[in-house]
Amino acid sequence: MRALTAIVVLALLASPGLPASAEESAPVVVKSLTDYPGRTRSVTETQKAEIRAVLEQLDGHTKFICTGARLAGQSEGMNLAVRMRAKLVCEYAKSLRPDLSYWYQTKITEKRNFNGRVIVVSK
Question: Is residue 11 part of a domain?
Answer without folding.
Answer: no
